[in-house]
Design goal:
This is Dihydroorotase. The chain is built from eleven helices and 13 strands. It is of the alpha/beta class and about 350 residues long. It has a single domain, classed as TIM Barrel (Alpha-Beta Barrel). Strands 2-3-4-5-6-7-8-9 form an eight-stranded parallel beta sheet. A three-stranded antiparallel beta sheet has the order 1-10-13, covered by helices on one side. Strands 11-12 form a two-stranded antiparallel ribbon. Helix 3 runs parallel beside helix 4. The two termini are about 15 Å apart. The structure holds N-carbamoyl-L-aspartate and zinc ion (2 copies).
């Protein structure tokens, strides 16, 4: 007997689509399963102004294959020069759904990010006033802070002070990787949400480092100890509506991953939904997958749940996923969970 699970069509609340040839190649991998996605603005140069976001949205829609439907939810990249009025206009027109905070130097293409948080205070006040969410890459970049501690230190030194000084600002802690983040969400109100990636529910730091270094498991924030992965699993499957899926699917070509200074990012768009079904089944929480992947995100972003549905099907033999996708820039390796998966999208 085939086991089936039907959920409202999911959305991805944290996605990197890139641009040009890469965009062309990766967009169908998301649009196949997801109705909408929050599109990360860390292009080179970044998506900073409303006009940049409008042009990027048009490039995404132009790259969408015929017959596919997909709605890109655009974001602006917060810089110390962001103009609160430009941002408010982009929000009022319905174009922009969130603003992204990258501490300068924290991750891929974050050089234009924020160094001095006092400089963006007027922007944050404006966002609180108009109800525009702030998405945070939550890691400090201080050289003396160990990379495995950078998320926890960000919560204490940056996030909590922002939340205290800007009451009413709605914040998403993006791609959380620690029990510290889960504990912080628990201590806060409904104005704080958190996205969790597929891969952080599957790998811990041993997967990256034991038995040889595995560049395809390297992403930022870097995967932590097992106790943290277990806390993320508990959070994702808890039914707490403040947790929702943000895959952080972040394609880089193999030459850029398999290099002396390899890029950070896992490419999970092609197999995320089957992997999540596997994880939620392991946690005896298949009935919670609809909340995590399809309902909690729209509730936070004040958007309707998609009216279409997606059916996942469990088969008797392992599903074979493509190992790579080809792009004009080179091959991109698909995230390999390292175990057999029996779920597929019907
Ligand atoms: N997650 C990653 O490891 N990489 C992302 C950037 C990010 O989300 O931090 C990317 O753009 O490649
Ligand atoms: Zn990030
Ligand atoms: Zn990301």
């Amino acid at each position: 007997m085939t086991v089936q699970l039907t959920i409202p069509r999911p959305d991805d609340w944290h996605l990197h689509l890139r641009d040009g040839a890469m965009l062309q190649a990766v967009l169908p991998e998301t649009a196949r399963d997801f109705a909408r996605a929050i599109i990360m603005p860390n292009l080179v140069p970044p998506v900073v102004k409303g006009a940049d976001a409008a042009a990027y949205r048009d490039r995404i829609l132009a790259a969408l294959p015929d017959g596919m439907t997909f709605e890109p939810l655009m974001t602006l990249y917060l810089t110390e020069d962001t103009d609160p009025e430009d941002l408010a206009a982009a929000h009022a027109s319905g174009l922009v759904k969130a603003v992204k905070l990258y501490p300068a130097g924290a991750t891929t293409n974050s050089a234009s990010g924020v160094r001095d948080f006092d400089k963006v205070r007027p922007v944050l006040d404006k966002m609180a006033e108009i109800g525009l969410p702030l998405c945070t890459h939550g890691e400090v970049t201080d050289h003396d802070i160990d990379i495995f501690d950078r998320e926890a230190v960000f919560i204490d030194r940056v996030l909590d002070p922002i939340r205290r000084s800007t009451p009413g600002l709605r914040v998403v802690m993006e791609h959380i990787t620690t029990k510290n983040a889960v504990d912080y969400v628990a201590s806060q109100n409904k104005d704080l949400g958190a996205t969790i990636t597929t891969h952080h529910l599957i790998i811990n730091r041993n997967h990256i480092l034991v038995g040889g270094i595995k560049p395809h498991y390297y992403c930022l924030p870097v995967a932590k100890r097992e106790e943290h992965r277990l806390a993320l699993r508990a959070a994702a499957t808890s039914g707490d509506t403040r947790y929702f899926l943000g895959t952080d699917s972040a394609p880089h070509t193999d030459p850029n991953k398999l290099s002396e200074c390899g890029c950070a990012g896992c490419f999970t768009a092609p197999n995320t939904m089957p992997l999540l079904a596997h994880v939620f089944e392991e946690e005896n929480a298949l009935e919670k997958l609809a909340g995590f992947a399809s309902e909690n995100g729209p509730a936070f972003y004040r958007l309707p749940v998609n009216s279409e549905s997606l059916t996942l099907e469990k088969q008797a033999t392992p599903v074979v996923f493509p190992q790579k996708i080809e792009t004009q820039d080179g091959p991109v390796t698909v995230f390999d969970p390292g175990f057999d998966v029996f779920w597929k999208v019907a």
